[in-house]
């Protein structure tokens, strides 16, 4: 197949003459009558020039004619040429043989542009061929062709170079005037061409030298022929016929064409109009062609544009379609203005393509277009148009025919019309609907918004327009969503209403805008037919009976000025023929057979329901308004006023079928409605909440008349913010719930996020019911209120086992009383255990009442779903309460509610492992926690666990930040456990972030600055020791307990040998912790308080085991001198060793066997300075006096460093690292000497436990460091000892004589 490709290419593009392959060089004959005559012009290197005639021959001329496709030379003559006209002479003195393809291929010339020609004559050549141009088609219009002798016509391509220039010359040559400017020539393409023809394209040099397309290098190829329309070509059109191919002929300028011109046949009129051939032309100059052509729309006034002709109905292709084309179509068909044009993707064959109209054509068929009767046009898009005659308008879903939502039918579909609607447009719509003029600015009662799509057109009607179809329209670029709809009220809008005892009975009235009138009850017009229409308009079925009332009995009578004579054909009273009212003495009355009722689904709240006889349904929510809600609440007895419920604006239409589109209220005219006739409501059903439905409740919890308050609106609970719970509101809620008076209000932590809440109540003065209050809803994260009314009650399990097991007691404003076990079963037990947060019921037993009264009978049988145990209360007094055989109830639940501390008697508080929130925390709650937790056995003398005492009041309650939720605790007062209190979970960010920390008094740890005596210190807060001051007197009982806790025997007076405490440390010291005891304090922990100590003395205590601290033997200066002396001695030793090494290297090294000496002595020296097992293991007594530890004078001051350095910090110089369990933090009984032991503890009288009792592994006192260093140096000089180190090899060049090389020790 690929072998055919060169052949196909050669067929598609063939050379017309040889010059096509000449590259950039070009030759033509110039100045003749046709392109095959003239003198030679050469285009070389972008420049035109001439050829000299020196040595010129006939053979040269033949090569010229052949190269331009003009045959051979017939003759030539010399003609003069000016130097300017001649230009550059490219060739001269050439001699051709006749075989050359181009003139510049001939020999003889010295080269292109080389040499000089002095002559002024050139050869004018006439070739044997003659190229003639013409127009194939009509006179002065058609396809451009050329023809040579005995050749068939060849057409130039429509992309021919310099087409306008050649066209103008061609038109003038044909006596057709000049070229017609902006002429659309597509009509002359294919119908006028023969079945087989050739085409050529041209390419000029761009210098405007060429005067004929033949001079522009023609090349044969497949293309569309070039079409020329000259000025003298006239277009004829048909006017006034039955179709586009029969009627009176007129020129384009409107001049009538007579039949004589048609009969002459010069113009081929039928063919020009694409109407086939000539048939006849009568005396009235009515032309009839063979074809019958009509332009139609697929749906009469809109749809696909079709050409109805000999081949049937054929579409029009959409290529290069303009809106002016659509205007011509609508005008031709008499369908008004074009409304819209659209294009549909459709692969088909079309009869017209590339249609272009100017706008003044009478038919689309008169517009220029690409057309072929023999060959249809392939098409991918077809054109559709909507004309104004297809438009219909209506006012939908209003209370009458002349008011409602504007909708428009376009292209067979209805659309809603959005705003950007002019007053003139409104007047045109009302006029078209025969409703008078539009009432501009008149507000229509809210109606349904509908569900149709929006119309994407903008209209611009004038003041004289009478129909919307005649108004100009353009496409709208607005976003088709959430647009404001156009609602219109026309001046002839009327409504009928009944004023009586029910919806379907009463006097007949007519409402015109805001005015009401009574309908005349004239016997001539108020007939059964009229009454039937009124009942139908009121959706009340048929007329049961009708009558007339005396108008004089109705005060303020104002009769409607029109009367209606109805039959059974009309749909509305106002469609009946009307006349001027003649009888004003009576008013029409009707009683209809049907019934219409209005109600709310839940009495005073819920979905609005309309019942027509036995059929009930909802009202579309998009037609509802707050004004209608207010009217609805007032129309239902006992429902009060409308409440704006943020979540009560709609209910699903799936549960409530949309029976009614819109409902309308009027205090005088009564009510009316618009039925939903099969359409879909947008959104939800209308829902109303009236104040009569509001109910404030205490959320069911473990308690009765105590808990969080919620406002229930439309069966949905809303939190009530603390600011809305005023005293008056609290009292109203307690009274409505039959809970007595308001007693207290507690605020819960903030919610974790914004939510709809009640932020305020608007209540009338002396209000007694919440139904009279108007709540305000907002999104808020406010704190809720927990209300306690005077009738509150709570059940508590009292016992040693915890909050989830014990005897059941009822607490209230009265003294607590035990609960009777009468009638108690697992059902009641499970309900109470769950209320208490104790998981569920385990068992219950009877207890002896101990001659105490018993209370209550509980029975949950018959209660479907009890909210709490109080729903099961049957009686407050047990049956036979005076009978001594009654028992009290002991209940055991499955779960636990334990309050714990993170550390021993101190730390963060948790309830059932959930952190407790700090908000609302009290000191009483802290005491409950300490009482519930127990001290470790090692902190007291009793063999049994004791509680942690009371909570320290001075402790900061702020704990850490909870990672998740926390629990908020609210206690009434009599609870002895935190688990007895009311709790609620608080989410992070809602007050649950900050937790509670408690420090119980049994967590205090005491110490003194000396063993069993000195200044008193307390460990508080965690890990910090603080010196305490004394407020008042430390009495004997307090002293005894403090010495007992220190395990130092009994208190004693100040020893006479005790060194005095400096005045600056014992007087006027600003401390933070104090002892404030009375004579009754027996536990020193309860004397601790947190207060300023300014003006108070430091607290001191001395016990039996007190050991006085002696003054220091050395000063700090002496200590530093000793350390410095030791350091110098150490450096001297290192220096001596270094010198010894150098001396040994110079004097010669003994063989390795001579060096195997004992090195253990040096090991001792090394171990004393290597920093690991050295001074840290030496008793200070083994050191020289200069470096012994100073434990005298300032030793007592180092006790203060305990608080600063922290307990457990020790000096590695003095003792080995203490085990973890022996740190002061874990064992507060470790005294000062435990942390910093002294080597002379027994002699100096320092207190504490001696840690270094076993000295077997401690280095015994030896020679002084200086002496040791000297001995080491002496031994090194004698060669007895060699330090263990690697020595480098000595190079041979450095060795003297026959010394042996040093052998390296393999062990290093």
Describe the protein.
The protein has 1308 residues and is α+β, with helices and mostly antiparallel strands. Helices cover 15% and strands 31% of the residues. The strands form 17 sheets. Strands 44, 45, 46, 47, 50, 51, 52, 53, 54 and 57 form a ten-stranded mixed β-sheet that branches. A hairpin with a 2-residue loop joins strand 39 (605-612) and strand 40 (615-619). Helix 16 runs parallel beside helix 21. The longest helix has 32 residues, at 1116-1147. Residues 1-15, 1058-1069 and 1149-1308 have low confidence and may be disordered.
Brief account:
The protein is an alpha+beta fold and 1308 residues long.
Beginning-to-end CA distance, first to last residue: 91 Å
Count of extended strands: 73
Major sheet details: 10 strands, mixed
Provide the β-strand percentage band.
25-35%
The oligomeric status of these chains comes to: single chain
User: What low-confidence regions span 5 or more consecutive residues with pLDDT below 50?
Assistant: 1-15, 1058-1069, 1149-1308
**Roughly what is the average pLDDT, rounded to an integer?**
79
The best one-word shape is flat
In terms of structural class, how would the helical and strand content be classed? alpha+beta
What would you report as the Rg, rounded to the nearest angstrom? 60 Å
Helix residue percentage: 10-25%
Number of helices: 21
Distinctive features:
seven-stranded mixed beta sheet; ten-stranded mixed beta sheet; alpha+beta; disordered C terminus; 1308 residues
């Amino acid at each position: 197949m690929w072998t055919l490709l060169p052949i196909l290419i050669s067929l598609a593009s063939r050379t017309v003459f040889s010059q096509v392959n000449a590259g950039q060089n070009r030759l033509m004959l110039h100045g003749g009558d046709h392109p095959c005559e003239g003198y030679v012009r050469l285009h070389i290197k972008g420049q035109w020039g001439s050829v000299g005639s020196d040595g010129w021959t006939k053979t040269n001329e033949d090569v010229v004619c052949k190269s331009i496709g003009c045959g051979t030379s017939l003759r030539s003559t010399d003609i003069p040429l000016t130097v300017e006209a001649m230009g550059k002479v490219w060739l001269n003195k050439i001699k051709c043989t006749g075989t050359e393809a181009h003139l510049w291929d001939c020999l003889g010339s010295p080269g292109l542009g080389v040499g000089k020609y002095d002559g002024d004559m050139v050869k004018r050549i006439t070739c044997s061929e003659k190229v003639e141009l013409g127009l194939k088609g009509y006179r002065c219009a058609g396809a451009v062709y050329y023809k040579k002798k005995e050749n068939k016509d060849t057409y130039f391509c429509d992309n021919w170079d310099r087409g306008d220039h050649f066209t103008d010359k061609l038109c003038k040559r044909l006596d057709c005037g000049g070229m017609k400017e902006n002429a659309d020539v597509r009509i002359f393409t294919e119908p006028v061409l023969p079945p087989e023809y050739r085409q050529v394209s041209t390419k000029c040099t761009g210098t405007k030298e060429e005067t004929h397309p033949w001079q522009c290098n023609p090349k044969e190829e497949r293309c569309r022929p070039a079409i020329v329309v000259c000025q003298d070509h006239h277009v004829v059109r048909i006017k006034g016929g039955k179709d586009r191919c029969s009627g009176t002929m007129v020129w384009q300028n409107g001049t009538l064409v007579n039949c004589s011109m048609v009969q002459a046949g010069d113009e081929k009129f039928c063919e020009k109009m694409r109407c086939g051939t000539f048939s006849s032309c009568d005396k009235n100059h009515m032309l009839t062609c063979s074809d019958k052509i009509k332009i139609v729309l697929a749906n009469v006034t809109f749809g696909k544009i079709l050409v109805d002709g000999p081949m049937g109905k054929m579409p029009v292709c959409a290529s290069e379609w303009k809106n002016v084309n659509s205007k011509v179509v609508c005008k031709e068909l008499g369908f008004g203005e074009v409304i819209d044009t659209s294009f549909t993707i459709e692969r088909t064959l079309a009869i017209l393509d590339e249609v272009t109209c100017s706008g003044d054509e009478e038919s689309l068929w008169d517009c220029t277009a690409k057309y072929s009767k023999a060959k249809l046009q392939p098409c991918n898009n077809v054109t559709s148009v909507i004309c104004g005659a297809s438009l219909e308008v209506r006012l939908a879903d209003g209370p009458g025919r002349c008011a409602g939502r504007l909708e428009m039918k376009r292209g067979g579909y209805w659309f809603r019309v959005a705003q950007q609607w002019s007053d003139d447009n409104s007047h045109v719509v009302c006029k078209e609907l025969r409703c008078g003029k539009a009432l501009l600015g008149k507000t229509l009662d809210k109606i349904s918004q509908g569900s149709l799509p929006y119309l994407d057109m903008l209209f611009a009607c004038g003041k004289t327009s009478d129909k919307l179809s005649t108004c100009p329209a353009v496409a709208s670029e607005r976003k088709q969503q959430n647009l404001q709809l156009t609602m219109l009220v026309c001046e002839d809008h009327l409504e009928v209403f009944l004023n009586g005892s029910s919806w379907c009975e009463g006097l007949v009235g007519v409402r015109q805008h805001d005015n009401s009138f009574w309908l005349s009850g004239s016997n001539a017009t108020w007939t059964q037919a009229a009454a039937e229409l009124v009942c139908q308009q009121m959706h009340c079925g048929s007329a049961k009976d009708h009558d007339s009332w005396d108008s004089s009995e109705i005060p303020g009578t104002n009769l409607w000025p029109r009367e209606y004579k109805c039959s059974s054909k009309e749909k509305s009273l106002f469609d009946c023929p009307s006349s001027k009212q003649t009888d004003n003495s009576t008013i029409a009355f009707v009683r209809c057979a049907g019934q219409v009722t209005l109600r709310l689904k839940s009495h005073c709240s819920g979905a609005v329901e309309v019942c027509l006889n036995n059929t009930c349904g909802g009202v579309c929510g998009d037609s509802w308004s707050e004004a209608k809600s207010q009217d609805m609440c007032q129309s239902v007895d006992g429902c009060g006023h409308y409440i704006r419920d943020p979540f009560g604006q709609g209910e699903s239409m799936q549960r409530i079928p949309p029976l009614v589109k819109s409902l309308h209220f009027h205090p005088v005219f009564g009510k009316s409605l618009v039925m939903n006739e099969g359409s879909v409501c947008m959104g939800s059903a209308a829902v109303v909440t009236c104040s009569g439905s509001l109910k404030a409740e205490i959320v069911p919890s473990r308690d009765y008349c105590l808990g969080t308050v919620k406002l229930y609106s439309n069966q949905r609970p809303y939190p009530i913010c603390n600011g809305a719970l005023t005293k008056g509101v609290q009292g109203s809620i307690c009274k409505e719930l039959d809970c007595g008076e308001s007693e207290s209000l507690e605020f819960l932590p903030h919610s974790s996020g914004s939510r709809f809440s009640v932020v305020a109540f608007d209540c009338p003065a002396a209000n007694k019911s919440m139904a009279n209050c108007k709540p305000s809803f907002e999104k808020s994260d406010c704190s809720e209120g927990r209300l306690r009314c005077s009738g509150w009650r709570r059940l508590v399990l009292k016992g040693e086992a915890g909050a989830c097991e014990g005897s059941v007691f009822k607490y209230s404003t009265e003294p607590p009383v035990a609960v009777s076990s009468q009638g108690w079963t697992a059902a009641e037990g499970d309900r109470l255990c769950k209320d208490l947060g104790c998981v569920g019921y385990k068992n219950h037993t009877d207890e002896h009442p101990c001659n105490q009264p018993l209370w209550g009978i509980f029975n949950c049988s018959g209660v479907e779903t009890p909210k709490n145990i109080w729903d099961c209360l049957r009686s407050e007094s047990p049956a036979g309460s005076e009978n001594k055989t009654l028992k009290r109830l002991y209940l055991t639940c499955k779960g636990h509610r334990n309050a714990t501390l993170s550390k021993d008697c101190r730390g963060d508080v948790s309830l059932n492992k959930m952190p407790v929130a700090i908000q609302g925390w009290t000191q009483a709650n802290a005491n409950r926690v300490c009482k519930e937790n127990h001290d470790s056995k090692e902190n007291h003398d009793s063999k049994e666990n004791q509680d942690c005492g009371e909570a320290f009041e001075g402790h900061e309650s702020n704990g850490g930040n909870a990672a998740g939720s926390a629990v908020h605790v609210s206690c009434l007062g009599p609870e002895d456990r935190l688990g007895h209190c009311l709790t609620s979970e608080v989410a992070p960010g809602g007050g649950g972030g900050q937790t509670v920390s408690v420090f119980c008094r049994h967590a205090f740890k005491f110490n003194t600055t000396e063993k069993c005596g000195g200044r008193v210190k307390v460990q508080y807060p965690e890990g910090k020791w603080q010196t305490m001051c004394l407020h008042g007197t430390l009495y004997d009982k307090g002293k005894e307990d403090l010495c007992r806790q220190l395990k130092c025997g009994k208190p004693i007076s100040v020893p006479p040998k005790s060194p005095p405490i400096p005045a600056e440390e014992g007087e006027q010291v600003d401390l933070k912790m104090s002892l404030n005891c009375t004579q009754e304090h027996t536990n020193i922990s309860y004397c601790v308080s947190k207060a300023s100590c300014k003006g108070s003395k430091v607290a001191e205590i001395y016990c039996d085991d007190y050991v006085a601290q002696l003054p220091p033997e050395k000063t700090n200066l002496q200590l530093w001198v000793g350390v410095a002396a030791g350091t110098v001695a150490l450096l001297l030793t290192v220096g001596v060793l270094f010198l010894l090494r150098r001396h040994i290297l110079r004097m010669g090294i003994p063989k390795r066997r001579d060096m195997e000496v004992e090195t253990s002595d040096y090991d001792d020296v090394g171990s004393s300075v290597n920093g690991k097992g050295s001074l840290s293991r030496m008793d200070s007594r083994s050191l020289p006096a200069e470096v012994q530890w100073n434990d005298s004078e300032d030793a007592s001051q180092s006790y203060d460093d305990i608080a600063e350095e922290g307990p457990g910090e020790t000096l590695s110089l003095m003792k080995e690292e203490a085990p973890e369990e022996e740190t002061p933090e874990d064992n507060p009984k470790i005294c000062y000497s435990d942390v910093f032991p002294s080597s002379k503890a027994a002699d100096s009288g320092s207190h504490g436990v001696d840690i270094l009792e076993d000295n077997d592994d401690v280095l015994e006192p030896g020679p002084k460091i200086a002496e040791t260093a000297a001995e080491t140096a002496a031994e090194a000089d004698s060669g007895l000892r060699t330090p263990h180190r690697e020595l480098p090899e000595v190079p041979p060049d450095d060795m003297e004589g026959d010394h042996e090389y040093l052998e390296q020790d393999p062990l290093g």
